[in-house]
Amino acid sequence: MSANPDPVRVFAPAKINLFLHVGDRRSDGFHALESLVVFADVGDELMIEPAKEFSLALNGPFGIKLADEQDNLIAKAARALAAKAGRTPDVKITLTKNLPVASGIGGGSADAAATLRGLMQFWNLKIPNEDLHAIAETLGSDVPACLLSETLWMTGRGEGIEPIPGLPPAPLVLVNPGIGVSTRDIFANLKDRVGIGQAAKPKPDLSILALADYFKSNRNDLEKPARQIAPVIGETLSAIAANGALRTRMSGSGATCFGLFADDKTAEEAAAKLANDHPTWWVKKARIQ
After folding, report:
1. Is pTM beyond 0.70 here?
2. At what angle do helices 129-139 and 107-122 cross, to 10 degrees?
3. Which residues are paired to 154 by β-bridges?
4. Regarding beta strands 55-59 and 91-96, do their DSSP bridges make them parallel or antiparallel, or are they unpaired?
5. Vertex 104, ends 101 and 243: CA angle to 5°?
6. Whether residue 255 has a cis bond before it, omega within 30° of 0
């Protein structure tokens, strides 16, 4: 198939773990996970254009953070898909990096998944979904979920994904206090955990208040060790709660936290207040897609 001569634009939405339970370490070295994953209406953006050879351009508020990582997940995704299709990755990809780097909301994984989706369109490929999923698995634990970018029940190390319909497009406020935390260190400090197999899947067509109530039965097992390593995560959660959130939680291995709000007005006011009170923090009002 020939390539599309027109640029292709792809949205890479932020991934939010509404809960994250951690099981035992598997034989492959990864911990078994169980998580309810949603995607927000904020994220990175990619533009794919024809070129003689592969290149990656970076812009956006967090693009500078990736300046030394030209061989990042986007490049790996492009090469992997090109190899599967039996062609060269002759494209220029421009990444507008709007999400904080290494922040627990799947930025790199979302970008890799968006690269796969965008190149499938740009190159007019007809690769079966199971083969595309297999490529995503090789790129990272969150990439298969980000490939679908819809509400999912995630298991295994991330490769097990089951769509979960019916969650409300609830307002969220995402907050990152501007620090990096080591996922390896957090897992090393993990002592207390719910484990997997204990969580119930949400009932369909929940209201926002019912979704808030659902939070009572689960948690993020990585939040406690993350707060021990970086106390500002606790400060962030407290600040979100103090501005009217129904529930607060850390996403992934942090340090991004989020609040679930009853309505858009309260969420917008909270985001404005948090941004004003903490000008060095990244604050975004969002919605579950």
Report:
1. yes
2. 140
3. 35, 161
4. parallel
5. 105
6. yes
Can you tell me which residue has the tokens 């951690």?
22
CA 66, distance to chain mean position in Å, is 17
Q: Residue 117 is encoded by which pair of tokens?
A: 């989706």
Catalytic residues: 15, 142
Could you tell me the two tokens for 70?
Answer: 């030209």
Q: Which domains does the chain have, with CATH numbers?
A: 8-163 (3.30.230.10), 171-287 (3.30.70.890)
Report the alpha-carbon distance of residue 228 to residue 266 in Å, rounded.
30
Please write the tens of the pLDDT for every residue from 221-267.
999 999 999 999 999 999 999 999 999 999 999 999 999 999 999 99
